[in-house]
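# step 3/5: fold
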Amino acid sequence: MIQGKQSITFEQAPYILESASIVGTKEGEGPLGKLFDMIGEEDHFGADNWEDAESSLQKDAVFLAMKKANLAATDIRYLFAGDLLGQSIASSFGLMNYQIPMFGLYGACSTCGESLGLGAMTVASGHATHVLCVTSSHFASAEKEFRFPLEYGNQRPLSASWTVTGSGAFVVSSADYVEAQKKHVRAKITGITTGKIVDYGLKDSMNMGACMAPAAADTIYQNLCDFTRKPESYDKIITGDLGYVGQTALLDLLEEKGVDISRQHMDCGIEMFDQDSQDTHAGGSGCGCAATVLSAYLLKQLEEGNWKRILFVPTGALLSKTSFNEGQTVPCIAHGVVIESV
């Protein structure tokens, strides 16, 4: 099952049995609005503060994913969950009442890829029949955590991305269960490429695309090497959060290595918003960006047979308020997940 330097291939590929996506009002007004399972009427989601609103997002996404899979909380062996807030409080407060054994994760905006990779490994190795992978972000809670309170009303540079308000949850199930029960599935996870921390010395927290592009390039290149594939082996190579600035940097970095993915590449942050009408500058980012686009749009393309195989590569910037205020650089990571149609 070990593939090359950083990858794993699954002999019995675990399946993405079901998934759910919940987003905020701005995301619901974007190009993918009709595809999400649920759109909030307002971005507090009935909560008293932004952090509780994000917890509510995760709680509801998990409930909806289990409902669609016709599973109860007692059927789920493990939760793999994370978010952007300090100590991952959106996950802990949002999911504690489910009483499911939980691995709390932090990969910043790459957390969806990290959780799917770890979940797939757990299922494929026989340690669980069902696991649930979930992550979230919220524009207002992220601004408060990493930048400025919304009341400050600061002007955002054109390189800045817009943190997506949303949560995506995925039920990953064993091949034995799916085949025995003859279950309909959304897709299967056939391999993963775990990323390394990559730091090009950038310090601009308002240009996450440029900071994260080197990590995405590193993981994509390693995936192609480990699996001895070419870009055209994938219908799409999809990053999670680079936006327009990061996309340009990614293509340039891979071109230096002799790899051209310009025909295959797309980015969830670019797909999420309409650049002309929604004023999100460089595009979308945040844990919820890649997760909700994967659930609502990417899996739909695989399910309908429009694509056969994709490389899903959400990217994360591993900074904190402390590291930024101390003048540290922004180290980043990207995790690759190979997902195929059934």
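# step 4/5: annotate
The chain has two domains: 2-179, 189-340.
# step 5/5: archive (pending)
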